[in-house]
Amino acid sequence: MSQEQDKVFFRNYSIVIGILAILIIVFLGLARFVSPTGKGVDSSAAAENTAPAGKVRLEGEAMPVVEVKKEAAAKPAMADAPAEPGKQVYSSLCFSCHGTGLPGIPQLGDKAAWADRIAQGKDVLYEHALKGFTGASGIPMPPKGGNASLSDDEVKAAVDYMVTNAE
Ligand code: HEC
């Protein structure tokens, strides 16, 4: 390499280093600006989020205090709950339309969507659920939700379950 080439190289190299130095300062400033605390990275949240799930207790160390959530302990397990036929029918069939957010179909627990329907009276709801019904939505509610092997009582129980959840 000639001396002239060296000079050019040295100049270009210095420019690159200078630009990098400026970028570092800019990014440091930006990091400070976008950090929620304005004081750079909030390391306390990071420590909490990356904390190990458990710790080894060494001999001689005190036993940890374990908080038992009373609310959760007091609730009976699902299996212990008495069987609700309406809920069962709902979960196994009606849910596929009335619990999946399909537009135009009154959803479980959607009070606004059920108010006018409930106002027709239970007998009308039973009738529509048993025999099928197409109303303002233009989408057909199939007889017995599409499962003809359901008994009338099972379908009515499912209607009761949905009505109870919308009152
Ligand atoms: C294939 C989808 C589908 C399934 C499955 C389904 N429904 Fe429906 N259901 C509808 C639609 C759509 C409507 C609204 C019809 C309308 O108002 O135009 C409706 C409306 C109803 C209504 C209100 C009727 C009224 O008079 O406003 C009841 C009650 C009802 N369904 C009960 C049930 C029960 C009980 C089951 C399960 C056994 C069930 N549905 C399963 C689609 C379904």
Keyphrases for this structure?
7 helices; elongated; single chain; mainly alpha; 2 domains; binds heme C; Cytochrome Bc1 Complex, Chain D, domain 2
Describe what this molecule looks like in 3D.
- The protein has 167 residues and is mostly helical.
- It has 2 domains: 3-42, no CATH class; 81-166, Orthogonal Bundle (Cytochrome Bc1 Complex, Chain D, domain 2).
- The protein has 7 helices and no strands.
- α6 packs across α7.
- The longest helix is centred in the first third of the chain and has 32 residues, at 3-34.
- The protein is elongated.
- The model has no long low-confidence stretch (mean pLDDT 85).
Concise structural overview:
The chain has 167 residues and is an all-alpha fold.
Q: Which structural category do the helix and sheet elements fall into?
A: mainly alpha
Helix fraction bin: 55-70%
CATH topology of the largest domain: Cytochrome Bc1 Complex, Chain D, domain 2
Shape descriptor reads elongated
What's the CATH architecture of the largest domain? Orthogonal Bundle
Mean pLDDT: 85
CATH class of the largest domain: Mainly Alpha
> Ions, cofactors, ligands: which are bound?
heme C
Number of strands: 0
